[in-house]
Amino acid sequence: MANFPQHLYYGLSTSAITSALGYFQFGLSRVETGGAFIIGVLASLAPDLDHPASVPGSFLYSWLGVIIPLAIAPHLPYDGQFRLEHWIVLLASGYILIRHLAALLFAQLTVHRGMFHSIPAALICGEIVFLLFAHLPNYPRIVISAIALVGYLTHLVADELYSVDWKGDSLSLKRSSGTALDLGSIKQLSTWVTYLILTLLSLNIWNHFQPL
Description:
About 65% of the residues lie in helices and about 5% in strands. The protein has a two-stranded antiparallel sheet. The mean pLDDT is about 80. It is mainly alpha-helical. It has helices spanning about 5-25, 30-45, 55-70, 85-110, 120-130, 140-160, 190-210, and strands at about 165, 170-175.
């Protein structure tokens, strides 16, 4: 499978292309384009959430520890003005919870190259991004979530490509081949949980979807 520099390179390249398309072809604003680019890069590393001790996992949890508190702040049930002390508490507590506690929890509950390396997980990533941008009209939300989806799939495709072992004029498949672009196994509880999450998110989007 591909290593961290390779995943980061492909994530940066793919997200640069898709966010540029979002700006020039699909009407994203400059700020939305910049945000979509960052989200696409993070999504390209997201499959390694199941391996917090790795370089990409540590990098990703550190970023998410900052971005997720910022993303949920507008949705908090707080009627007053968000002041500096509120931001300090939110960012500090959010970073500790995500960077350390969530990373520890994921390390205990997940297996590397499990369902996080799968097509339904990529769809879940796109749906979460769509729901997080509830303040935008549906059209840019779809574009940004598609950029996240492509970023996630970039990671999976890279892992599959690097599972092919070229030796001279012949090639062979490594044991990891076929474990990234996967739909899961009905014998695994993680597969059922993944599809349950995907279904619930899809129903949420369907129930709240307004005409474009």
